[in-house]
Specification:
Elements: H1 9-17, H2 19-26, H3 31-57, H4 83-111, H5 117-142, H6 147-170, E1 179-180, H7 184-210, H8 227-254, H9 259-284, H10 289-311, E2 314-315, H11 329-337
Antiparallel strand pairs: 1-2
Helix pairs in contact: 1-2, 2-4, 2-11, 3-4, 3-6, 3-10, 4-5, 5-6, 6-7, 6-10, 7-8, 7-10, 8-9, 9-10
């Protein structure tokens, strides 16, 4: 058994003043623990998007008609409400699970030795994105599922996935200066892929805002554009992303690029093929709910795949001990945790 140190009154004061430093002084996580914590935050950021899509697709967006309460005077659904309330309330409760996953990632990153400020900052960036999107989610409810606020809600969730994926990647590499593994031409091609992928996601929110799934069974404002026209634009952008990915894979093989970028590009290409099949099937079958849900999940995987391709273009080695700050981590933590 691991002996639990006895806490003194000074320890209690230190824990209250700076709990993260207090934990970091007494715990050093294994690097695998830090990676798993970052991965858990990434997985939950995808789960919250998918469950949010389920809320919309089941018409449960206003199942809890107010915020932060579910109904006036009650934080939870009442027996008078329908199953839509349970679905919407469950999605709200999953926000707390997401917060727990992000909090675990922050604690693990803060406790790692040597201390990596970049990882901790990425964890806190996720926390503030979660808080911002929770508030925006409340605004979405209060304005009756206005499609523009719904689109902003999804885009902010995409930003959360971006930071979570970046943190997960950074847990598997050092803090040295990034060293490119490919030339400028490949980097420019990948940035073009990233740009078009962002456009694809943005246009996808317009397709949703103009499409037949408003998010609630009542009257909900829609984006007044031709749904078919925007869906076709979305498909064109998807084909551009597929074409850029295939061209990138072909080019990387031709120049005998490192295995990492080639594998990540291959993975993205396979994800895009699956997403394309789902997209066309749902279009020609008039958007069945289940397929739309899978398409939303696929959009998260596509974006993560694009980010992995981008991040695979460089490597970062560990910073040599001689290059670390002169003041040791333990000394810094102790000064932060000590009562003032």
């Amino acid at each position: 058994m691991v002996r639990v140190p006895k806490l003194t009154p000074a320890d209690a004061v230190a824990a209250v003043r700076n709990p993260l430093a207090f934990i970091a002084d007494r715990w050093t996580p294994d690097p695998r623990t830090v990676r798993r914590a970052a991965l858990a935050a990434l997985v939950m950021s995808v789960v919250i998007v998918v469950t949010g899509g389920a809320v919309r697709l089941t018409g449960s967006g206003l199942g809890c008609p107010t915020w932060p309460e579910c109904t006036d005077g009650s934080l939870t659904p009442t027996t008078a409400l329908s199953y839509h309330s349970a679905i919407e309330f469950t999605n709200r409760m999953l926000t707390y699970v997401l917060c727990a996953a992000v909090g675990w990632a922050i604690i693990a990153a803060r406790s790692q030795k040597p201390y990596r400020r970049s990882l901790t900052r990425l964890g806190w960036a996720q926390f503030w994105l979660v808080m911002s999107n929770a508030i925006l989610g409340g605004v979405v409810v209060l304005v009756g599922l206005n499609p523009y606020t719904v689109a902003a809600h999804f885009l902010l969730a995409t930003a959360l996935i971006t930071v979570a994926a970046l943190m997960w990647q950074r847990t598997r590499e050092g803090d040295g200066e990034p060293r490119p593994l490919v030339g400028k031409a490949v980097q420019q091609l990948v940035w073009a892929l990233v740009t078009v992928s962002l456009l694809l996601i943005a246009v996808g929110t317009v397709v949703t805002g103009a499409g037949p799934h408003p998010g609630d069974s009542g009257e909900v404002e829609r984006i007044h554009v031709s749904w078919a026209g925007v869906a076709e634009l979305h498909a064109v952008l998807a084909w551009i992303v597929v074409s850029l990915t295939f061209a990138l894979w072909f080019f990387l093989r031709g120049i005998n690029a490192p295995q990492g970028p080639r594998d990540r590009t291959r993975d993205l290409f396979l994800i895009l093929l699956g997403q394309g099949v789902i997209g066309y099937v749902q279009y020609f079958t008039h958007l069945p709910t289940v397929l739309v849900g899978f398409h939303m999940f696929g959009s998260c995987l596509v974006w993560i795949g694009v980010l992995r391709v981008l991040l695979s273009l460089r490597e970062r080695a560990d910073v040599p001990a001689a290059d670390l700050p002169a003041q040791s981590y333990d000394a810094v933590s102790a000064s932060m945790a000590a009562p003032k």
